[in-house]
Design brief:
Elements (H helix, E strand, L loop, with lengths): L13 H12 L2 H4 L1 H9 L3 H25 L5 H9 L1 H30 L8 H15 L4 H30 L24 H7 L1 H8 L5 H4 L6 H30 L11 H9 L4 H33 L17 H20 L4 H27 L16 H18 L5 H24 L1 H16 L1
């Protein structure tokens, strides 16, 4: 039975939002994707993560600034205010597709970690089990979902902190292990830049994928209490923690084991403890990794269902996705997302060995487009603010322009890189389909969307 109200419940607390932003970013990108980036760049990938972290900070600062001026307006709404209907339509649907792919990657990664204990069980079977668990969690009222996500995220943040501490102790010989002369691994085996600067640059696509999810707070804002006060604080705390949780673990992995011995069969975090010879540590870390990537998938299903709700509310998706359950949950959005995720999980049956590598590249493209649009929106909207923003991007407009140019350069370079041909083709086809669809929807339902956005603007002014 459907509820009469057509608004999402405001049940998320500040701590829920902060940990959701962390949960979206700390997942497969670091726990599984780090093996990909290490094989591309060796120890120098740390620099790629730091540069990516700087770009992330600028994007998040721009998002927080706009949110302080336009409270309770999500990512798509901000793009609409800046550029109008069609870019808003494209970004909204692109963001939804991005998260569908990310969720699929996270669930398949969780299944691959389970194979550490159950090597004879097919990857697709374990992926289906993980999918059922995560979809079930998202059927709870949002305040319960937020609480569960808070603890999910807390477990992996605690685990990463312990990994950093224990890894540092191993590196400096304070904890006995089978690792000999660990610090030499950072400069041995080809040096800090074993594949040159081109190798480090090649890792950027996975790095951007890894950081994608930070802008999830721009989706959660519609269900957040006192969002205008909360978001700037969340941004300041989240970004620095994520950079810390990426750069230090990678340095520790490269110090404990030679980068060229990292394999894609399991997480580098588990391989480190296996190599160090600490009894039981690898099993504990593997459990934590499963929890971590399921947490990221959990946040992703939240993002897709709320994005689809927003698209329907703006007249840019079928109105059936506006309907919410008696618990304030966009049930139809969750169900259609699940169907597309199952289609993605099917790929783990078709190509179990390469599926994660293929799928990780595509969200790297889409998230860059979303980030570029957010930077562009901040540049344009800054001139239109009715009130002074309570949180502002420093050294405006130079920092935002720098982020846009850097992200655009990375995007263009990867499009023309033959190694990324599959991701490029999929990304360009997707953009073409969404763009064509925007013309169709603008003809059929564009007036509805224009009226809805116009009413939102009037409410903001009043």
């Amino acid at each position: 039975m459907e509820a009469k109200q057509q608004d999402l419940q405001k049940g998320l607390l500040p701590r829920h939002v902060q940990f959701m932003a962390l949960a979206g970013m700390i997942g497969t990108g670091i726990f599984k994707g780090s093996s990909e980036t290490l094989n591309m760049a060796g120890p120098s990938v740390v620099i790629a993560y730091l540069i990516g972290g700087l770009l992330l900070f600028i994007v998040m600062a721009a998002l927080a600034e706009m949110a302080s001026v336009y409270p309770n307006v999500n990512v798509q709404g901000l793009v609409y205010k800046a550029f109008g209907y069609r870019p808003s339509f494209i970004v909204g649907w692109l963001y939804w597709i991005n998260w569908i792919l990310v969720i699929t990657v996270e669930l398949i990664a969780a299944a691959s970690f389970l194979q550490y204990w159950f090597p004879d069980v097919p990857l697709w079977v374990l992926s289906l089990i993980c999918t059922a668990i995560i979809v079930s969690i998202n059927l709870f009222p949002v305040k319960h979902f937020g609480e569960m996500e808070f603890w999910f995220a807390g477990i992996k943040i605690l685990a990463l902190s312990l990994f950093i501490i224990l890894g540092a102790l191993i590196l400096f010989g304070a904890v006995p292990s089978s690792v000999g002369n660990p610090l030499t691994n950072l400069t041995g085996n080809g040096g800090f830049f074993p594949n040159g600067f081109s190798g480090m640059f090649a890792a950027f696509l996975v790095v951007i994928f890894s950081y994608g999810g930070a802008e999830l707070i721009g989706v959660a804002v519609s269900e957040t209490k006192d969002a205008k006060r909360v978001l700037p604080k969340v941004v300041k705390g989240t970004v620095f923690r994520v950079i810390l949780f990426y750069a230090l673990p990678i340095l520790i992995i490269c110090g404990i084991m030679p980068w060229d011995q990292v394999t894609s069969e399991s997480s580098p975090f588990v391989q480190v403890f296996d190599m160090a010879g600490i009894p039981g540590a690898a099993d504990v870390m593997n459990f934590v990794l499963i929890t971590a990537v399921l947490s990221a998938a959990n946040s992703g299903i939240y993002a897709t269902s709320r994005t689809l709700f927003s698209l329907a509310k703006n007249g840019e998706a079928p109105k059936q996705f506006m309907k919410i359950s008696k618990h304030g949950i966009p049930l139809n959005g969750i169900m259609v997302g699940m169907l597309f995720i199952l289609a993605g999980v099917f790929l783990s049956f078709v190509t179990p060995d390469n599926v994660i590598g293929y799928l990780m590249a595509i969200p790297g493209f889409t998230i860059m487009i979303v980030w570029i649009c957010l930077c562009g929106a901040q540049l344009k909207l800054r001139k239109q603010y009715k009130d002074t923003a309570s949180f502002q991007v420093k050294w405006h407009p130079y920092t935002t322009i720098f982020a846009m140019v850097a992200l655009s350069s990375i995007f263009i370079s990867f499009i023309f890189n033959a190694d990324n041909i599959i991701g490029t083709i999929v990304c360009l086809i997707t953009l073409t389909i969404i763009t064509i669809s925007s013309f169709i929807f603008q003809t059929n339902k564009g007036k509805t969307a224009e009226n809805i956005h116009s009413n939102e603007q009037k409410r903001q002014i009043s």
